[in-house]
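Cross-posting from the modeling subforum.

Setting up a comparison between two proteins and wanted a second pair of eyes on the formatting. Protein 1 (sequence, then C-alpha cells):
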Amino acid sequence: MEDAVAERWSRVAEEWDEHWGRVAVPAWRAVVEATGIAAGSTVLDVGCGAGGFLVFVSRRGGTPSGIDPAAGMVRLARTALPGVDIRLGSAERLPWPDDAFDVVTAFNSLQFSVDRPAALAEASRVAVPGGLIAVANWAETTLNELERIEDAVSRAGGEEPTPDDPLRLAGGLERLMADVGLRVVDSGIVAVPWSVPDDEALVRGILFGETDEVMRRLAATVVDAAQPYRTLGGGYSLMNAFRWAVARAPA
C-alpha cells in the first residue's frame, strides 16, 4: 500500500471500524470453514485493519497475529487484543520468519498492495509447508447494491465510476494465485449484507472520512440512491457479495 493511502486509512480508522469493521463476517466464516481454523491454529491476517478477524480467530481458540500498513488501524487492533502480536508493516515485507503460520489470510486488503505477486509470495513464505493462504474481497459491481450508491456519489462529484478490479471478477483471485505458483484448493462467493437504521447512519457509513460539509452536500444524493433498499422501519438493507479463494503453499 502506498504511504499516502496508508495515512488516509489511518486517519479514518475509527470511523471505518464503526461502520464497516464487521461487514466481512460472512467471508470470515467461509474462510474459517474452508481452511479448518480451529483451536491451536496459528493464523496471520495481512491487512488486519482494526483486528476484527483476529478477535474472530481468538474466540475459536486459534492464535492470531496481524499486520497492517495504517498506524491508526494497528492501534485499534492492539487495543482490542492486548498481548497479541500485531505489527505495522506491508504485505510485501512480512516481518516473520519462514514457516511461521498454519494459515495466512487477507480480507479486502490484497488489492491495495503495490506488488500483489510479491505479497502472495510473502504469504507463502511465512506459511508452513503445505499451509493455506486465503484471500477475500468484494465481488464485482453487479453483485453489490452498495455500488449503486457509490456510483451516484461519484457522478455527483463529476467523476465516472471506476471499472472493476480484476480480483473482484469471477476467477480473478484464482488466476492470480495460480500465476505465482500456488495451488488453489477451494473458492466461492458469499452474501455480505449491510444494514443501517436510518438516513444519518446511511450517509455516515457511505461517506465516512469526509468532512461534515461534504456530508451535508452529498446527503441527498446518498439517500436518493438508496431508496430502492429502504425498509419498512425507515432503515436500509443492501445485499452485497465477497469472493474468496484458498490456495496451498508449496510443501
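Protein 2 (same layout):
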Amino acid sequence: MPGNNELLKQQARYISHEIRNQLSISDVYCEVLKKHLDKMNIQNDAILKAVSCIQKSSKLIGNSLLDLKSITNINPQIISLNRIIEESIELSKVYIFDKHINITCNLGNDVQVYIDENKLEACLLNVLKNAIEAIDLKGTISIETKTDNDTVKIIIANNGKPIPKKEQSEIFKDGHTTKPSGSGIGLYLSKINLQAQNADLKLIRSAKKETIFEISLQILHM
C-alpha cells in the first residue's frame, strides 16, 4: 500500500486531471460562442471581452494545476511588461461587481523582462483583487511603472481600508490572512514565485489614506 505522501500525490494528480477536463470544456464552448457570433455577423465587444477573460483565466488555472506536479514549475520567457499589466487590469475588473472603483494606469516606456508570464500575471491579479476588496463601495486604484537603471518597479496603490499595523509584517507568511474567507496563500505564493526569478513583491506602506504594494523586476537588455 502506498504511504500517505504517495496517496496525496495520486489524489492531487487525479483532481488536477478532472479540473483540466472541465477547463477544456469551458475553452471549447468559448470558441463555439466566438464562431457563432462571427457566423451571425454580430460584433459585441462586451461578450468578446468576457470570453477572452474566461479563456485567460482558464489558462492561468491550468498552469497553476501544473504546480501540483512540481513546486519548481517555472517557465520564464521574454515578455512585454506593459502588455501583462494591461491584461491583468482587464481581468481584475470582474471583481469590482457593483462597486464604483476608478482604476488609473500610468505606464512608462515599455520594457522587456525575462519571467514566467503566468506567475507574474497571477501575482498582479492577486494584488489588484486585494485592492478591490479593500475598497467598500467607492475608491481608486492606481498602477504605474518606474525604471531605475536595470530595475523596473510596478507600483499598485489603493485608498481602501488599510492593513492593520500588527498584520503588516505577517501578510507574506503562508496561511496568514486578514480576511474572514481568505486562504492566506495568495500573497505568500506571489512572493516566493517572484523571488525564485530574481524579482520581489513587498508592501511599501499601508495607512489610512493609501496602501502601496511594489513589484520589482529585472529589465532585460537586448
